[in-house]
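Per-record layout

source: Sporomusa acidovorans
name: Pyridoxal 5'-phosphate synthase subunit PdxT
length: 193
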Amino acid sequence: MLTIGVLALQGAVQEHLDCLNLLPDIKGIAVKKTAELNTIDALILPGGESTTMGKLLREFNLTPKLTEKIRSGLPVWGTCAGMILLAKNIVDEPNCHLGLMDITVRRNAYGSQLDSFSTTALIPEVSRTPLPLVFIRAPYVEAASPDVKVLSTVADKIVAVEQRNMLATAFHPELTGNLDFHKYFAAKVRNKN
């Protein structure tokens, strides 16, 4: 049984937990405290408001331990705001949050909440059939280092990437009813153990 945590400071926490708990041999748990980082095999950084989440990470003193765990190989998946938390660079912002993934992201790249949209894309590493993608005030990756694997682009914008133990998506698989991305992440976790 794998235990996959979902950072539960703000955002789409329950939606990710619901998806995880539909998978065999996976237990999804909400993570709010530093000690809980020692009880999980992997972590999802959910969508939400990246500035608020970054502030809460600092206020709850989670940043140092979380950064150390991810650097040491803890599998992590950031969706939307979670992608921004992982990025080493954020366009037009002097500071980053965790600063672990060799990507430069643009926040709210597609515009406001009213500019949210859905589409489909074939992502062969994840599924043999096109996947539904939901973008809500989403970022995209403007630049990625050569050792970052690009999994998907939409309209020439990078929207899914992987680097070592880190996965990041600009979209929200937890809102689609499709479990393929959660299965893909769980497989990454199993292969690491």
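summary: The chain has a mean pLDDT of 92. The longest strand covers residues 157-163.
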